[in-house]
Design a protein that fits this description.
The chain is mostly helical. 81% of the residues lie in helices and 1% in strands. It contains 18 helices and 2 strands. Helix 2 packs parallel to helix 8 and helix 2 packs across helix 9. The longest helix has 41 residues. The radius of gyration is 20 Å and the shape is globular. It starts with a helix and ends with a strand.
Length: 396
């Protein structure tokens, strides 16, 4: 299938295939230990803290290798990288399933992290940009919309696998899904794309300017807040008087809000300036915090969950769309990778930092995340529509 045929005949199929791959990729990597962590810790005779330290390790791997992966995508196309991600994720999951001690688990999760670097959202976004150029905003939003179901579907599926087969069997089941479902689906529906001419991506010399710095700060703060909430939202709401059952129910609204705003972005909001929608997204978490502090209880918990979900849902789209909108499709994958590296590093430390803040003061913890969102709000002002190479400064 040629690139032109892919654009004319199968854009919806391409988006659906990439989106379903993202659902599975997030479910079997990012959200895996949220269900299996306690059982893994008991069986391997390690602490739960150690298990989640290996999760942090898996998140650190993409921060190290993502720019190299992105240069390869820009130069040679994204389909081979996406196909290899399914194999690497399956290998990491299989290694997790056979791990006999903490060292084995750490090695396995590092391999899972390598699979994340190859296959999570930057890779399908880059493929869509190579297919559709600057018209890729809506396909990117579509993939993000479907991929947002990763937690909604992933957590109960992992729990079902674990109940039926044990935690090791759950890892093997997800490995099988990667090899038997995702790999053939991507091979069939994802068109092969050509790499671009050897511009900056070939040398790693994409350059920082003020707009790049603002975007990097914005995304780093966004991913820090997101991982804080992903790791601690039910515990946070319990500190504000909700029972565990009430807190879990309220936290479930995060996914509902995220998918809802991505659907709006895919339909109603797609013609709006992405800078404007990003600016609105940065204020949604602080609005939810205001509702929590003002109302408390279940209403306040729901307000925070909805605000966090809506803001994070729109920012996940902005991560793919803003670099395209401001800089065009040249060296898109590599530019996105270096913009995202501070965010990848920030998300490694987010859960630990927020845990310390939460122990000191729950109110202070949410005021901290709200302050970071206001920093993000400030970073949306003065963004240049298109960066020009002559005005940029080289990365060291």
């Amino acid at each position: 299938m040629s690139e032109g045929e892919a654009q004319r005949r199968h854009p919806a199929a391409v988006v659906a295939g990439l989106g379903l791959g993202q659902v599975v990729a997030f479910a079997c990597s990012f959200y895996l230990m949220g269900v299996l962590g306690d059982a893994v810790a008991r069986d391997l005779s390690v602490s739960t803290a150690f298990v989640f330290a290996t999760v942090s390790l898996s998140l650190a791997v993409p921060a190290l290798v993502a720019p190299r992966v992105a240069r390869h995508i820009d130069a040679r196309g994204g389909k081979p990288v996406l196909l290899s991600s399914h194999v690497v994720l399956a290998a990491g999951l299989a290694l997790t399933g056979v791990a006999g001690d903490g060292v084995g688990l750490a090695v396995a999760m590092a391999v899972v992290g390598a699979g994340q670097a190859l296959g999570l959202s930057p890779t399908p976004f880059a493929i869509l940009v190579q297919l559709y150029g600057e018209a890729a905003r809506r396909p990117i939003t579509g993939v993000a919309l479907i991929g947002g179901l990763g937690s909604t579907l992933g957590w109960p599926l992992t729990a079902g696998f674990a109940e039926a087969f044990g935690w090791r069997g759950a890892c093997f089941a997800w490995a099988g899904v990667q090899l038997l479902f995702c790999l053939p689906l991507s091979a069939w529906l994802c068109p092969r794309t050509r790499g671009g001419p050897r511009h900056d991506a070939a040398t790693g010399a994409v350059r920082w300017d003020r707009t790049m710095i603002q975007l990097a700060v914005l995304f780093a703060c966004a991913w820090f807040v997101s991982t804080c909430m992903s790791a601690h939202l039910p515990r946070l709401l319990a500190h504000f008087g909700l029972t565990i059952t009430q807190a879990a129910a309220a936290a479930g609204l995060v996914g509902v809000a995220a998918v809802s705003v991505r659907f709006l972005e895919f339909t109603v909001l797609r013609r709006l300036n992405p800078v404007a929608t990003t600016r609105a997204a940065t204020l949604m978490h602080p609005a939810g915090v205001l509702g929590l502090l003002a109302a408390g209880g279940q209403a306040g918990g729901a307000a925070l969950a909805l605000g966090q979900g809506a803001g994070n849902g729109m920012l996940a789209v902005a991560k793919g769309v803003l670099p395209l909108s401001l800089y065009g499709d040249r060296d898109y994958a590599y530019r996105s990778a270096i913009l995202g590296r501070p965010a990848l590093i920030a998300q490694v430390f987010g859960p630990t930092v927020f845990a310390l803040a939460l122990e000191r003061s729950p109110t202070g913890a949410v005021l901290m995340t709200s302050a970071l969102c206001l920093v993000m709000f400030a970073m949306t002002f003065g963004l240049a529509r298109r960066g020009r190479p002559a005005q940029e400064t080289a990365i060291a």
